[in-house]
Write a structure and sequence with these properties.
The protein is mainly α. The protein has 3 helices and no strands.
């Protein structure tokens, strides 16, 4: 028989840490600021277009990473909570079954005692 163990608090802690990785987006905010033009000649304008494209790409990737990490954090937290709730629910069901068995055993014992008399 195999068992599955999950440290719910550790998973919730990891979820919180993952969710905070991209909290500081200040570097990417600074990238959004207008940059001075490189020049009015053709090569400078081509280079400006390439730099702007790369800069926008970095910003978009950072935003996507932040969104992904936030979603991963939410999913991990949900998994931990679901496992925690499932374990608690299962324990309650087991306790109810055991309580029912105790009543049944007591009734059966009382019935057996009545038959012996």
């Amino acid at each position: 028989m195999t068992g599955t163990n999950l440290n719910v608090e550790a998973v919730k802690g990891s979820a919180a840490n993952i969710g905070r990785i991209m909290d500081d987006m200040s570097a990417f905010t600074e990238l959004r600021a207008a940059w001075p033009a490189l020049g009015d000649f053709d090569l400078a304008q081509q280079l400006q277009a390439i730099v702007d494209d790369r800069r926008t790409g970095v910003i978009v990737h950072a935003e996507q990473l932040r969104t992904s990490l936030t979603e991963i954090a939410k999913a991990l937290h949900k998994v931990a909570t679901d496992v925690e709730n499932t374990d608690e629910g299962t324990a309650e069901k087991i306790r109810a079954v055991v309580a029912g068995l105790r009543v049944r055993v007591q009734e059966d014992l009382a019935q057996l005692d009545g038959q012996r008399v």
